[in-house]
Automatic annotation (TrEMBL), chains A, B:
InterPro entries: Aminotrans_V_dom, Pser_aminoTfrase, PyrdxlP-dep_Trfase, PyrdxlP-dep_Trfase_major, PyrdxlP-dep_Trfase_small. This is Phosphoserine aminotransferase. Pyridoxal 5'-phosphate binds at A75, R76, W100, T148, D167, Q190, N232, T233. Residues 3-343 form the Aminotransferase class V domain. The gene is serC. It comes from Ferrimonas balearica (strain DSM 9799 / CCM 4581 / KCTC 23876 / PAT). Homodimer. It holds the Pfam family Aminotran_5. Gene3D superfamilies: Aspartate Aminotransferase, domain 1, Type I PLP-dependent aspartate aminotransferase-like (Major domain). Its cofactor is pyridoxal 5'-phosphate.
């Protein structure tokens, strides 16, 4: 039976990447040791690290005036690092569209003057007109284009004068974006890049060098940039796996090709849900995530049975986030279209049986 | 040819652990997915996480009044976390015995009043009599029992009244220690535990809850303890591999059994070096590391040839730290005695050829 893993994160990785990593797990390129047993300063590992950065730069068309940092931890670390590096004595604006952007704002409040604008409306849409017309007074504006808990996305890049910071943890490399519109992009790896324990930061170099005097060294972007992300021993195996994912993405045709597949996968699933009386998704169509498709059964008493039968059919981890319940199918880059087809087929069968 | 990897870190992992991890890399316990693709909140992953903690508690006889935290990053993150959690408005004392304890003190100075005592003497020994007799005024005393760069160890636990904090990154689980003598122990994983990107913190619970108001959430021990190290998504694969290493250690007979092998390995190597005119180690015998054996060739012009021939003989990563040069054989728990035998045999052959 083919298993399809819809976990929101740590999420599935491309099957081809996992098989290759397994094959060379104990013997990387004939060296007789694992890539995770190599010194991060060895020429063999440096080549892995540099290729990963180059491939990412190519995939995202990252301009030269941006540093690409491979850091420890997840996005939560960056919730602190961003104000510690960019806030100075100024104030910042946080746009709230879901659990993660709210959490980022709450953490940032430790470090200075944070203003928050809640974009969420009762009709499960986002009202971008609430964004202040003049943002020039802010050190930066922060937002999260894809919120995994409710499956809410903000596809339009907010038009702000202030440096724009975006948490791409759950949507990086899922569709094209113009890096030059942003001051800083960041993403925990465990959804669309690699295993948990690695975070990418892409930051315009002119913003570096202003870290708070009490910024922990491991969160100081300038220090990381000066040392090519090797101020301390990086999470070498996660970095290597991320690099393998980048190579796989290039073989798939890059981000534009993935975006096409992602759009098709999401359309298929939302289309099925909308056409059904048995399932529903309440998010406004223009703000529906292509990465995390949430849905509810018309009768929540069937939830347990749905999950058990899905699991038995090889469709794993469909349970919604514990804060909101219901179901959630996370369909990042690594989820093949066949996985969505299998899910739709199962949902249809389940609805016919219990509807 | 058998390969022996003497890298100081990321270091080799036990061969049996690596083979098992390879075997189940794409299919953990018949689930059809990798352990790194499991939600950290799934029952299957929670069992992995809990077993790792229980096995570590057993191996180190950790009393119940200590929390065991599995955190992101390396020891450098803890250089900041320790003062941010323990310093308060007080002052702390840092004992300096090498590069790492100095770096820890330098980072701590960002956060308050830090006093430093350099224990290093010109004769490459440590003078513990320099430790102030009365330390009761300090919030804590920090030291590093094993310094990897010079291969210098401090085997006696300093007798201090203040809470004692130790960086065990390069010696944890290498010999027995009495956890109750310490307020906090910490260790980056990549030397004696698992892959880079995981750090263990073992901390007396009564010390929690006093973090600085500007402590990043990911460095707040109380938050980590409250959430069983899952306040954010932990580095799940590294945690799993650490757990596999703990199981392997139990099968080897636990820490006492490893300590015996480690003592034997170190004695063999130092014994050979001391008996030779060709090699030398200048560290005072009572402070020689059992984990990182540094040595110099009598003629540094032979260094390159030594490294090239060692590599050709399957003995990898013997180059000393870039700050001090010479050679370094890191012989952590995962290095079998046969690896040390092979190294001694090679060194002997090399000395006879070029001596």
């Amino acid at each position: 039976m083919t298993i399809y893993n819809f976990c929101a994160g740590p999420a599935m990785l491309p099957t081809a990447v996992m098989r290759k990593a397994q094959q060379e797990f104990c013997d990387y390129q004939g060296l007789g040791v694992s890539v995770m047993e190599l010194s991060h300063r060895s020429p063999e590992y440096m080549a892995v690290a540099e290729k990963a950065e180059q491939d990412l730069r190519e995939l995202m068309a990252i301009p030269d005036n941006y540093a690409v940092l491979f850091l420890h931890g997840g996005a939560r670390g960056q919730f602190s690092a961003i104000p510690l590096n960019l806030l100075g004595q100024g104030k910042a604006l946080y746009l709230e569209s879901g659990q993660w952007s709210v959490a980022a704002a709450t953490e940032a409040e430790k470090y200075g003057d944070i203003e928050r604008v809640d974009l969420r409306c009762e009709s499960r849409t986002l009202d971008l007109s609430r964004i202040p017309a003049d943002t020039s007074e802010y050190a930066y504006v922060h937002y999260c284009p894809n919120e995994t808990v409710d499956g809410v996305a903000m596809f339009d890049v907010p038009e702000v004068a202030a440096p724009l910071v975006a948490d791409l943890s759950s949507c990086i490399l899922g569709r094209d974006l113009d890096v030059s519109q942003f001051a800083l992009l960041y993403a925990g790896a465990q959804k669309n890049i690699g295993p948990a324990g690695l975070t990418l930061v892409i930051v315009r170099r002119d913003l570096l060098g202003n870290a708070d005097s009490r910024c922990p060294a491991i969160l100081d972007y300038q220090l990381a940039a000066n040392h090519d992300s090797m101020y301390n021993t990086p999470p070498t195996f996660a970095w290597y796996l991320a690099g393998e994912v980048f190579q796989w993405l290039k073989h798939q045709g890059g981000v534009a090709a993935m975006a096409e597949v992602n759009r098709r996968k999401a359309d298929k699933l939302y289309g099925f849900i909308d056409a059904s009386d048995f399932y529903r998704n309440a998010v406004a169509p223009s703000h529906r995530s292509e990465m995390n498709v949430t849905f509810q059964l018309h009768d929540a008493q069937l939830d347990k049975r749905f999950l058990a039968e899905a699991e038995a059919a090889g469709l794993k981890a469909l349970k919604g986030h514990r804060m909101v319940g219901g179901m959630r199918a996370s369909i990042y880059n690594a989820m093949p279209e066949a996985g969505v087809d299998a899910l739709v087929q199962f949902m249809d069968h389940f609805a016919r049986t219990y509807g």
